Amino acid sequence: MRRRIGEACRVAGRDPAGVALVAVTKTQPDAALSAALAAGQRVFGENRVQEAQAHWADRRAGIPDLELRLIGPLQTNKAVEAAALFDVIETLDRPKLADALAAASEKSGRPVRVLVQVNTGSEPQKAGVEPEEADELIRHARERGLVVEGLMCIPPAEEAPGPHFALLRKIARRNGVETLSMGMSGDYETAIRFGATHVRVGSALFGERNRLETPSRD
Predict the structure, then answer these.
(1) What pTM value is reported for the model?
(2) How far is CA 174 from the centre of its chain?
(3) What is the pLDDT of residues 39-80, one digit of tens each?
(4) Each residue of 17-46: pLDDT tens digit?
(5) Is-contact 146 112, C-beta < 8 A?
(6) Nearest 5°: CA angle at 91, between 85 and 93?
(7) Are 80 and 106 in contact (CB under 8 A)?
(8) Quick one: which H or E segment has residue 148?
(9) How far apart are the C-alpha atoms of 152 and 196, rounded to whole Å?
(10) CA–CA separation, 26 and 28 (whole Å)
């Protein structure tokens, strides 16, 4: 996988050091996590707070360079737990969640780093702020003291991903953010061509996973 990321960067004229591989470990057994860690992987993406706690709470203290990223929808009542466990929350998609994360940050005294998730395809079943509302959410999150590092998206499965990645890059540029979490197992090479700084890869690393019901948002 690292070789393929490096080749995609070469084709795009980019430095491979500018693209982080996020290993998506949702629903994976402990053996898969241990194997990834043994191979030197240190950046991991999880969809659910409770599952991430089970995966990483006991491991975290012994891995000082571990980075955990929440890549699944977050309910406001889990904001405190999420802010305590994750280094970056990639799925900020509404002002109410920004307010909850800001309150968690104030309570802990720890800055909360976030990405704003943009629903580039305006799909009703997906989380994410509408593209035309992204600027306002970024402004609101910054005013509440959150550290807005960039944007995240998941393009519609039935559409070419390139235009969606281009849209995300455009929104990022006008808001002065650099992190672009975009691209998964099937389209990360395309995402790299459009400037992805983080690619979220699960099945290409671990094989197909068991699908769980997506949690509701409030």
Answers:
(1) 0.92
(2) 20
(3) 999 999 999 999 999 999 999 889 999 999 999 999 999 999
(4) 999 999 999 899 999 999 999 999 999 999
(5) yes
(6) 130
(7) no
(8) strand 147-152
(9) 10
(10) 5
